Amino acid sequence: MLVGVMGDTHDHLPNIKRAVLEMNENSVDMILHTGDYIAPFVIPVLAGCESRVIGVFGNNDGDRELLTKKCAEYENLEIKGNFTELTLSGKRVALIHGHEKNILGDLIEGGLFDLVVHGHTHQKSISRKGRTLALNPGEICGYLTGRSSCALVDMRTLDTYSIEW
Fold it and tell me: 159 - beta bridge partners?
């Protein structure tokens, strides 16, 4: 199973469209979004993903009720609150925005998850603590780093690949 990972889209529609194109071209089976969509008008753009998109809220997401309502208009989009866990290809996955550093640290250090996906810092990173791989795909918006990035994860092997533009 190939999973796309993106986040910190921050209303940047051209870059969101590019990320959707990258995910579709790579034929991902699912996309995880680390939050900070910001406004509901990004949801129809994300709905262009050919696979299911599961996300969480970020600390800058405004009208969460409206974001959730807008996602409900599309069969492939869902925001699961502030945190969710999934099992993908037999691997336990935690998805969180990451602005609550203590919680993020506990998820990574606790050893309960094979993969912890997070965002918030806008800096792409990958690290390992015991059995847990921690992945931040960077930022779609490009506002802080001047570069847009997302990631792909092969869930069988946990090999990761970065996509930048």
Answer: 154
User: How would DSSP label each residue in the chain?
Assistant: -EEEEE---TT-HHHHHHHHHHHHHTT-SEEEE-S---SGGGHHHHTT-SSEEEE---TT---HHHHHHHHTTSTTEEE-SSEEEEEETTEEEEEE---SHHHHHHHHHT---SEEE--SS---EEEEETTEEEEE---SS-TTTS--EEEEEETTTTEEEEEE-
**pLDDT per residue as tens digits for the range 73-85:** 999 999 999 999 9
Report whether 11 contacts 141 (CB < 8 A).
Answer: yes
Distance CA 133, CA 40 (A): 31
**Identity of the residue numbered 8:** D
pLDDT band at 161 (very low <50, low <70, confident <90, very high): very high
Mean pLDDT of the chain: 98
pLDDT in tens, 46-63: 999 999 999 999 999 989
Q: What is the rounded distance in angstroms from the CA atom of residue 13 to the CA atom of residue 6?
A: 14
Question: Which pLDDT score is estimated for 114?
Answer: 98
**Domains of the chain: residue spans and CATH:** 2-164 (3.60.21.10)
- Which one, of 144, 108, 126, 130, lies nearest residue 36 by Cα? 144
This prediction has a pTM of: 0.98
